[in-house]
Design a protein that fits this description.
Blueprint lengths: L2 H19 L8 H11 L6 H12 L8 H18 L9 E2 L2 E2 L1 H5 L1 H25 L4 H15 L4 H10 L7 H27 L3 H28 L2 H4 L5 H4 L5 H25 L8 H9 L6
Antiparallel strand pairs: 1-2
Length: 297
């Protein structure tokens, strides 16, 4: 099975779980369910939940044990996209090739759809933990990892610093802080939560955390590159938005060629870390580090 086939197969597992878990039924608040579902199933690579499943598997766990947490991570990621697209944030019209949530449902429902996905993600993780009380320790640790990565010491914290420094000159340390928190933190948490559920050793957790940091930053720098030279039809959103909002990116410091070089350094770092996993099925993670250098969406 090649890398893209494996991505597709695990994406199908994630989407099946999302269909199973997302709220349904006839009630007065149906509109928010519709808005939540609209953005969840608008497309996307499902990279974060796939990483949760694959890392659980890497360390010897059963992916069935991680499916609820994987689905929760996709809910959290999608909530962040809905809120990022709002007029008060990035004010984007398209996401994943479709109109953004607030363009379809209005700002009020879009805000609540994002809130709904975040809260439902937490409900999902709590319910799974309570239903597996004999193994609750590993699920609580995974839950804490994800909650921190999504919160004020993670993604939200990075977004705050990003907003406060729009149209301002910043140094490279501040830019690294923004991207390591706004983007990389949730990718890292996706990996570590899967590893915790799968029963990883402390050494494996340390190595996987380093891998997560490397590919998380590589992913973001590639995003910066694609915002400049990407194809709108492949990205599913407008390009040039960072420049239009006068946001500092890695291109501001390194230029195109320097940024491409930085992604290669991070990819090689991630591959070297993964090569420490002897007698493990690590091919997916090596292929992912290579794929991030050339992805177009």
């Amino acid at each position: 099975m090649n890398f893209k086939e494996e991505l597709y197969n695990y994406k199908e597992i994630v989407e099946e779980e999302l269909h199973r878990i997302l709220p349904k039924g006839s009630s007065l608040q149906d509109k928010v369910f519709e808005a939540m579902e609209y953005s969840i199933f608008a497309g996307g690579k499902r990279l974060r939940p796939i990483l949760t499943l694959k890392t659980c598997e890497l360390v010897g766990g059963d992916i069935k044990a991680a499916k609820s947490f994987a689905a929760a991570l996709e809910m959290i990621h999608t909530y962040s996209l809905i809120h990022d697209d709002l007029p008060a944030m990035d004010d984007d019209n398209y996401r994943r090739g479709k109109l953004t949530n607030h363009k379809v449902f209005g700002e009020g429902i879009a805000i609540l759809a994002g809130d709904g996905l975040l809260n439902y993600a937490y409900e999902t993780m709590i319910n799974h933990t309570l239903n597996n009380i004999n193994e609750s320790d590993k699920y609580i640790k995974a839950f804490c990892e994800i909650a921190k990565a999504a919160g004020v010491y993670g993604m939200i914290g990075g977004q705050v610093v990003d907003i406060l420094h729009e149209k301002k000159s910043i140094d490279e340390n501040t830019l690294n802080y923004i991207h390591m928190h706004k983007t990389s933190a949730l990718i890292e948490a996706s990996i570590i939560s899967g590893a915790l559920i799968g029963g990883a050793t402390e050494t494996e957790l340390e190595q996987l955390r380093a891998y997560g940091k490397a590919i998380g930053l590589c992913f973001q720098i590639r995003d910066d590159i694609l915002d400049k030279i990407g194809d709108k039809s492949k990205l599913g959103k407008d390009i040039g938005s960072d420049e239009g909002k006068e946001k500092a990116t890695y291109l501001s410091f390194y230029g195109i060629e320097g940024s491409i070089g930085k992604t290669k350094e991070l990819s090689n770092e991630a591959i070297n870390i993964m090569n420490k996993f002897e007698n493990r099925n690590k091919e997916f993670f090596i292929n992912l580090a290579e794929y991030l250098l050339v992805r177009e969406d």
